[in-house]
Amino acid sequence: MDLRLTGKVAFVTGASKGIGREVAAQLASEGADVVVTARTAEPLELAAKEITDATGRTVVPLAGDMSKSEDVDRCVAATLEKFGRIDILVTCAGSSPGGLLEELTEDQWMSSLNLKFMGYVRSVRAVIGHMRERGEGAIVLVVGNDGLKPSYWEMTAGAANAADLNFASSVAEQYGRYGIRCNTVNPGPVNTDRWDGLEKAFARDKKVSQDRAHELAEASIPFGRICEPAEVASLVVFLASPRASFINGAHIPVDGAQRKAIMDL
């Protein structure tokens, strides 16, 4: 299927590794030019080079911290200066610490909300005026199934994710009239560095080995395995494409029908 993305310009946050990197790679393979952002320049630049080499598209690395408004605004301004437009925004930058309520610090709560929620708000706010003026745009927030399926050991993530879902619904309703679509993709466990960290936190709190934590995660998913980044990215890229022209305000889980309660066995 031709996703009609050739010549589109995409802005992808958290794109040096994991889901964000795979999203950038798939967008480029479909013909889009991509600006990728992440906090650390070296792995970001390597990812951009590898994607360019593989696809022949222009992939521009811009190091920036999405927890800082000035970094978001700088990266968006640089994208508009180079390409003249942003057709697609995909937000992947964000992680939240696992842990139990009585052990989580206020700093951990604020760190989670500042990056995973406010980082997404900053990114959307930075591009929305431009998209409204052009009368079109596709926004996909990669959030997480904790906002739909709460888990007490992912409490900070669940709170930030639920806020993201509410925010995305509001954006979809307010800006749909301007031709802008806003949807969320909500993975469960995905084979990334971030999941490895959450798995370690789960093992710590449940007082089991990480191998046992991994077994419980797999057992909670009917497929008997956790998701791969490319499986999430495929949905993200479709939602970002004109093929998804009437999908707006949707919150789509990509978790293999995970039942989180099974992880507590």
Describe this structure in words.
This protein is α/β, with parallel strands linked by helices and 265 residues long. It has one domain: NAD(P)-binding Rossmann-like Domain (Rossmann fold). The protein is 48% helix and 14% strand. It has eight helices and seven strands; from the N terminus they run βαβαβαβαβαβαααβ. The protein has helices spanning 18-29, 41-55, 69-83, 106-134, 155-175, 193-206, 210-219, 229-240; strands spanning 9-12, 33-38, 59-63, 88-91, 137-142, 180-187, 251-254. It has a seven-stranded parallel sheet, with helices on both faces. The longest helix has 29 residues, at 106-134. The radius of gyration is 18 Å and the shape is globular. 50% of the residues are buried.
Q: Can you give keywords for this protein?
A:
single chain, 265 residues, alpha/beta, Rossmann fold, seven-stranded parallel beta sheet, 8 helices
CATH superfamily: NAD(P)-binding Rossmann-like Domain
Percentage of residues in strands: 5-15%
Number of domains: 1
Radius of gyration: 18 Å
Tell me which CATH architecture applies here.
Answer: 3-Layer(aba) Sandwich
Task: Write down the overall geometry.
Answer: globular
What share of the residues lie within helices? 40-55%
Spatial strand arrangement across the major sheet: 3-2-1-4-5-6-7
CATH class: Alpha Beta
According to DSSP, the number of beta strands is: 7
**Average pLDDT, all residues:** 95
Q: Which structural class best describes the helix and strand composition?
A: alpha/beta
